[in-house]
Amino acid sequence: MTEFDRETGAPTTAEAAAEAPPQRRAGRIARSTALFALATGASRIAGLVREIVAASYFGVSAQMSAFTAAFQVPNLVRSLFADAALQAAFVPVFTELLERGERREAFRLASSMIFLVALILGAITALFILLAPLVMRFVVPGFEADVFELTVALSRILFPIVVLLGLTGMVVGVLNSYDRFGVFAISPFFWNVAIIATLVGLAPAFPEEDEIYAYAIGVLVGTIIQLALPVVDLRNTPYGIGRALTAPLRLRNLRALGDPTVRRVLLLMLPVTISLGLVNFNLLINSLFGSLVSDEAPAAIDKAFRVYMLPQGVFSVAIATVLFPTLARFAARADFDGLRATMANGMRQIMLLLVPAAAAVLVLAEPMVRLIYERGQFDAASTELVAEALFWFAFSLPFNGLFLLLTRTFFSLQRAWIPTWIAAGNLAITALAALALYGPFGVGGIVAATSIATIASVVAQVIVLRRILGRLELGRLAWSTSRVLVAAAGLAVVSFFAWDALESALGRGLGGQIVSLAAGLGVGALVYAGLIIALRVPEAHQVLRLLRLRR
Description:
Blueprint: E1 3-4, E2 11-12, H1 14-19, H2 22-58, H3 62-81, H4 83-99, H5 103-139, H6 145-158, H7 161-177, H8 182-202, H9 212-235, H10 242-245, H11 260-293, H12 297-332, H13 336-373, H14 380-394, H15 397-412, H16 417-469, H17 474-506, H18 510-534, H19 538-548
């Protein structure tokens, strides 16, 4: 009989379970998270380099705002119908079939879904390319005519990424179900590298006013590479599924619509699609209200969002992604104690990592933006605008991490309509708050609206999950978070004064900026580490144990 590791949810034999030391078994999921975070960190750093290069070319110009808006539309459709939504609906059903030993049925489900994704998303892409002017008029009503025309043209170049990302989502969903996260984590690194190389290589071929097209082409090239890498990994898996899932598409696969497991995925995908789509509409709200503030505002908010996503992607996305298959296994086995424990530990880890990140961003937003972006067309005024947005994004940083994890908990339980209603409330709060705040507070008011909505959504998720699962170890979370907040306050104070003193001494040359900011963050991190250990935060000791673990 197959046994399962309680910490990781991974299948194991009885002999292996007996031989593996408990500490090693307990550290498997932590190691997966750490490795995923490292790979994601490399990808995010590459993403920052991409943003730096793009900022040097375009600053926060109208061109960049056109690209931002053009990219958000296919990105929204991607979230609705492609990678994130597909994985959230597909992984629990696929995992359940594997848990029941129905391996052949699981693979047939995956193969059928790949075919349907290619067919449906291909049709959506063709329709959008035809109707792009009509769609974009609703997205950026405040753009001038020339900026609007550029936005339409760029959106037509970018929209095919929807099909590519949909196929990527399916392949990655299969790999993640087998706890294979490496290629998924590192592929964005190559995506970013491809964009940078294409932009730098192609830009000279365009007139200066059209160089933004090189950026859009780079995104398309990078997305092709991002699909190719997990496909290669899938074909090389030891599970005997690569060739079946990447076989040529055939019209007879239309019969998949009659497969009850396919219908389950599609029915589960409906609320997931709506939920994720509503969440991602927040970005469109930012562009909509930003276009009413100025032509530069949408680009400024997007630049701040890219910096904000560095700690978000390294920590919360890593934790939520690695834990999702585990949560799905516990849910499939009706092991709600294991699910609760896994979710609660993930919440504490997110607070441990993202509260100090938020504190650092709050006190050092301006020097961060200056160091990352301020060169070429990106001037001091651009820095001030982006730093304002980043400051307000910081308040939502730990809460967005919790939101990602709790949303996946609902998906693992196949209770997808609940986050859908919560996401609808999130969107309503964002829109109303942005409407009230954009006039008096500009960019800061728009981003503050997003933060308010995120915090409210997390509160709603916790209330509902407590009704479903009972106790959620909230007392332990509060105990841990209170000590994390004390340590993060120490980090903020030390980081700011260390940076300020060094900047005054070294000036704002590139070398001086690097040294002062790195030293401020480094000293602050050391103070934070010392304080969480001194305050006996249990999650800190988990990290220390992780560092000592050996495979």
